[in-house]
Amino acid sequence: MKRLIITEDQKKDILSKYTESNDKLLIYLRRNYPVIEVPEDFRDLIGTYKILVDDKGIPVKNNFGRIVDKIDWEIKDLFSDISDKARRQTIKKYVKNFED
Q: Which of 39, 38, 62 is nearest to 49 (CA)?
C-alpha cells in the first residue's frame, strides 16, 4: 500500500477550504471528543488515531463520514445557533486533522 505524503502547506490549503468553521465549536470538539493514538502494533489494521464518540474509540481511518455524522447528531441541539453547514464543516475540519 502506498502512502500519500503531503506537506504542511498542502495540509493548510486543504483545511482552508472549510471556511465556514466555528471557533467556539472547534474548542468544544477538542475538549469533548479526545483523540487517542493507537499503539504501533495495530496501526496497520485501524490507522494511527481513534476519536472517542459515545465513550467508544472509533478509528478515523475509513470512518470519516461515520464520525462526522455521529458527532453532528450528538451536538445538533447544543449548537442550534450555528447553521448545519458550518457545524458539519467544523466537525470535518476537526476530524481531518487526524486522518491518515
A: 38
Q: Which amino acid is at 20?
A: E
| Domains of the chain, residue spans | 18-96
User: Model confidence over 33-47: pLDDT tens digits?
Assistant: 999 999 999 888 888
Angle between helices 8-16 and 84-96 (to 10 degrees): 170
Three-class secondary structure assignment of 51-74: EEECCEEEECCCCHHHHHHHHHHH
What are the DSSP calls for the chain, one per residue? -PPP---HHHHHHHHHT-TT--HHHHHHHHHHS-EEEPPGGGHHHH-SEEEEETTEEEESTT-HHHHHHHHHHHHTTTTTTS-HHHHHHHHHHHHHTT--
Please state the pTM of the whole predicted model.
0.78
